[in-house]
Amino acid sequence: MLDYFINYLKEKITLSEHEIELIKSVAVLKRLQKRQYLLQEGDVWKYNAFVSGGLVKTFSVDSKGQEHIMNFSAENYWTGDRESLTSGNPSEFNIVALENSEIILITKDDFISICQKIPQLNNLVNEILQRSFLVSQKRIHANISLSAEEKYQDFIQKNPLIVNRIPQHMIASYLGVSPETLSRIRTQSTKK
């Protein structure tokens, strides 16, 4: 799966053999079984993490035990807790595998080092961070301005490759609606 990560990078940027070897020297493959945690609330997140196979969710649990899903990350997506990584503070989130998954981990210091040595990688990371910020902005806007049905349709449109891999109650949590509301929306949309 390290080759999967390298191929992902090669699709985005040009890398020399030396640069590829440099990346491989700091990248570690972590295999997760379904329901296994990559990060638990209270731990400090220390990695840049790329999902090379499988599917993970990032979530928090409130004082009532209710789960709040922040995002899903499947193949070709990055995951982690950026706030904990940059601040060194304990994470408020959990990351758990929804399927058997393979994650490429690179420590913060190693990642900074290879970004300094490989300018194209640094540019790619900045591009990814900008896109991620825009996705977050759009998600916040959708949450405050769209109806539950519109949020669900937006989710389906933006996530066609993973929508059938995620249990409906988790999609409901991600959208901020009850499972009953989502069930009603899905029933109504099939009648249309």
Pattern of helices and strands = HHEEEEEEHEEHHHHH
Strand order of the largest sheet: 1-8-3-6
Q: How many beta-strand runs?
A: 8
Overall average residue pLDDT: 94
Low-confidence stretches: none
Question: Describe it for me?
Answer:
This protein has 192 residues and is of the alpha+beta class. The chain has eight helices and eight strands. The chain has helices at 2-12, 17-26, 82-87, 108-117, 119-145, 148-158, 168-175, 179-191; strands at residues 28-32, 37-39, 47-53, 55-61, 67-74, 77-79, 94-97, 101-107. It has a four-stranded antiparallel sheet. Strands 2-7-4-5 form a four-stranded antiparallel sheet. β4 (55-61) and β5 (67-74) form a beta hairpin. The protein is globular, with a radius of gyration of 18 Å. The mean pLDDT is 94.
Keywords:
192 residues, alpha+beta, 8 helices, 8 strands
What's this, in brief?
This protein has 192 residues and is of the alpha+beta class. The protein is 50% helix and 23% strand.
Topology:
Layout: H1 2-12, H2 17-26, E1 28-32, E2 37-39, E3 47-53, E4 55-61, E5 67-74, E6 77-79, H3 82-87, E7 94-97, E8 101-107, H4 108-117, H5 119-145, H6 148-158, H7 168-175, H8 179-191
Antiparallel strand pairs: 1-8, 2-7, 3-6, 3-8, 4-5, 4-7
